[in-house]
Design brief:
The protein is an alpha/beta fold. The protein has a single domain, classed as Vaccinia Virus protein VP39 (Rossmann fold, 3-Layer(aba) Sandwich). Helix content is about 40%, strand content about 20%. Helix 2 crosses helix 4, helix 3 packs antiparallel against helix 5 and helix 4 runs parallel beside helix 5. About 5% of the residues have low confidence. The structure holds S-adenosylmethionine (SAM). The site of S-adenosylmethionine has 23 residues, from helix 5 and helix 7.
Length: about 270
């Protein structure tokens, strides 16, 4: 890889701008090179990448926030940044603030397009005070383009559909509660929010409950193209057509015989 930031992946000639196959071919080295190149020209991305590498977010005023176990990798941030750069609507949404690394990356990338945008994050409790330094930085840096709503995603997500309308968002990142029924509830809301051509991204796809939801989607939702970044524990779904299933459609899918955090070994290692 050169050290240049990647251009947003080329869009095909499809009606809804389906991602090209070259997108899925992105490996870990390319994703890291992308975020590193952005960090050279964007101070917020640089701050976020430093936090990912050192485990500590450093506010310009000297305060710090330790990421501890809630730490997104540079490759994960690179992939989210590439998707945020292609977000086809002014609005994007996230379920689960955590330590705010994904939020920071999405906000900083979206700002680079110099178009009006809004990023809303649902998280009722956060991590018992952790993440507050990152959040105060984001409020100062991005003003009203960033909004944290203190609601569970299963409440706030559907409410946002009524408020903003179906298909109003271009990117929905799911990294909240990882119980199976919560992942499915989040997917239902994300599906309603996501526009044609937009993206739904799931984190922690090696965990059995999330893997189970992904297996359901892969078998039952032909209206989504699925890009597997298992090596980064992420799956990207792009909505490529309207949902034309019958109301009672159901295809069987595989439920992993593992519990809790018994992680799957990634089947597709990219780096
Ligand atoms: C793994 S962290 C998210 C990490 C984040 N992507 C980052 O970059 O730091 C998971 C977050 O989901 C939140 N969460 C848990 N259950 C939730 C729910 N039902 N709705 C919204 N957020 C939830 C937790 O409070 C926690 O902050």
């Amino acid at each position: 890889m050169s050290g240049e930031a990647l251009a947003a992946p080329a869009l095909s000639d499809g009606d809804f701008g389906a991602l090209s196959a070259s997108f899925e071919a992105l490996d870990r080295a390319a994703l890291i090179a992308h975020i590193e190149a952005l960090a050279r020209t964007d101070a917020v991305i640089a701050r976020c990448l430093d936090a990912s590498r050192t485990g500590v977010f450093k506010h310009p005023d000297g305060r710090t926030d330790a990421l501890l176990d809630v730490r997104m990798s540079p490759a994960q941030l690179g992939l989210l940044s590439l998707l945020a750069a292609q977000c086809p609507r002014p609005a994007s949404v996230e379920f689960g603030f955590g330590m705010g690394s994904s939020t920071t990356t999405i906000l900083a990338t979206r700002r680079r397009a110099r178009e009006p945008f809004k990023h809303i994050v649902f998280d009722a409790t956060g991590l018992a005070g952790r993440g507050e330094v990152v959040q105060s930085f984001l409020i100062d840096e991005f003003g009203p383009a960033f909004e944290r709503r203190y609601l569970r995603s299963e409440i706030g997500g559907p409410a946002l559909v009524s408020e903003a309308g179906a298909g109003s968002c271009g990117l929905v990142f799911l990294d909240g509660c990882h119980r199976f029924e919560n992942v499915m509830a989040d997917f239902v809301a994300a599906d309603l929010l996501c526009c044609l051509g937009g993206f739904v991204v799931l984190d922690d796809v090696l965990a059995p409950a999330v893997e189970c939801a992904v297996n359901y989607i892969a078998r039952n939702r032909p209206d989504y193209a699925l890009f597997n970044f298992e090596a980064e524990s992420l799956v990207v779904l792009q909505k490529i057509s309207p949902d034309e299933r019958e109301w009672s459609d159901f295809r069987p899918f595989e439920a992993p015989a593992r519990s809790n955090w018994e992680l799957k070994t990634p089947s597709l290692v990219r780096a």
